Please model this.
Amino acid sequence: MKPSDTMVKGDLMSKFPLVRVHHPRAYDIVDNPVSVSGIGAAFEGVIGIASVRDANGIVIGSTQFGGHLGMGFSNFEFTIALTTPPTGGAVVTLEIEPDDPSGLGAARVVVPVAVGTALIAGYLGFFTHTVVAGDTVGKIAKAYYGANNAANIKRITFANRDVILNPNIIHIGTELRVPTA
Model:
C-alpha cells in the first residue's frame, strides 16, 4: 500500500500551506490595481482576506477572495485597488490572512513589493540593465533618465532593494530594474 492510499482528506490538507502566493514575488514592482495569484485552501469558497499596507502600516487597499472550489485547494487570482497612494515611500506589503475556521492559527503570508506609480509618475513598466565594469547607480540614472540626481538614484535603489543594499556598491553582472513612464 502506498502512503497516499492511507491518507485521509484532513491529512492531505495539513501537508500544504493554506495560501501560497505565486504573483507578485517578493520585491516585484506592482501596478494599481495589484494583481495577485496563487493557490489556497478554501472553506465555503473563501480562501482569505488580502490587504496592502504602506510603510506606515496604513491599509491602502483590501479585498476578500476565494477559489474555484467550495472546499479544498484551488487556484485564485484577483486584484486589489489601492484607494490611496502609499505614504512613506514606494515600498508596501501585500498581506494575506488565510481563512482559518479551525482556529489553529494559519500563517499570514507577507510579500514586500514596490508600487510603480510611487517610484515614477505615470509608471508603465521597467527596463532591465545588467551592471558592467564602471557602472554606478548615478551613471545608470543618467543613462535612462537624463539626470544623475538624488530622486533618480532613489528610484533605481528602491526598485532593486533586494540586490542594492548600498547605492554606492553594485556588482558586475547584477540585473537591475529601471522603472519607466
